[in-house]
Amino acid sequence: MDRLQAMQVFTRVVDTNSFSRAADTLDMPRASVTTIIQNLEAFLNVRLLQRTTRRLNLTPDGAAYYERCVRILADIEETESSFANTGKGPRGKLRIDMPGSIGRMIVMPQLCEFHSRYPDIELMIGFGDKPVDLIQEGVDCVIRVGTLQDSSLVARRIGVFQGLTAASPDYLELHGVPHTIEDLQQHTAVNYFSSRTGRVMDMDFVVDGKSIEVKMRGAIAVNDAEAYLACGVKGVGLVQIARFMALPHLRAGELVEVLPQWKPLPMPISVVYPHNRHLSPKVRVFVDWAAELFERCPLLSGQEDAEQRCLPTATPKSSAVKHGTPDVAGTAEVVV
């Protein structure tokens, strides 16, 4: 029996709370995972896991063995990496997850740079706005917006999320431009609802240093950031969207910012990873690269710069001429 492999399989079964998910994340047949755990228990002559139809539970011996395995595997990885990095650099499969809009607009266009630096890292990138259980799903790190709530995770802040309120020129021509928070009661919004809770998210504004929420009526509610933005561009209603997503459409005249003096509350953008993976060289280099990438993008590093080199430009529409050039200077759940 390969005891090191058995430790790796056992810890992954515990982390994912599933033989099947452990097998998937390790690229192994489920039968092999089951056999390895059975052989390990026979070798140690103890029961490590109590199996029920719904979940797995560690026995007291299993909990003690798990804690030691985690320390041993971390020490081995750190030792191997200290030698491997002197020659070839970090290697292996790296599973990450991020909001689709950040992935498609910020990360993916620069991904060749990361691959050039670290050709031996195989990236598996997931896009989604739903919360990800890093441990159970075998994800190494995620990019998320908002304040970290889970104390079992580590978060490194890499940027600042700043939103704005906008509408299409056609919508504003038909319904007028709101000039105060109270004016919003006469307007229609595109509503965004949480994929996790189903709750419609109210618009948020910072007024006199305090964040206030405004509930608005709307005929359409979506739970996808790109669909939400598309509704705003098509004139369905007011939207409150990330500046980095809105900027190409502001430049093209497809959106106009409203109430620029009362912006939504800024929120941190962080790379989040489990405590027991903080020593992984492949995670460390990705986190460092992501921080560097976001620092180069003024929209996401907290700088108020109208000319952004990190984003594409949308194709102008005829309405831009009619309404003039808009002013662009101007885990909590957010629209990303």
TrEMBL record:
GO terms for biological process: DNA-templated transcription. InterPro entries: LysR-type_TF_proteobact-type, LysR_HTH_N, LysR_subst-bd, WH-like_DNA-bd_sf, WH_DNA-bd_sf. It holds the Pfam family HTH_1. Residues 1-59 form the HTH lysR-type domain. Keywords: DNA-binding, Transcription, Transcription regulation. SUPFAM superfamilies: Periplasmic binding protein-like II (SSF53850), Winged helix' DNA-binding domain (SSF46785). GO terms for molecular function: DNA-binding transcription factor activity; sequence-specific DNA binding. CDD domains: PBP2_CrgA_like_3. The keyword DNA-binding applies. The keyword Methyltransferase does not apply. Belongs to the LysR transcriptional regulatory family. This is LysR family transcriptional regulator. The lineage of its organism: Bacteria, Pseudomonadati, Pseudomonadota, Betaproteobacteria, Burkholderiales.
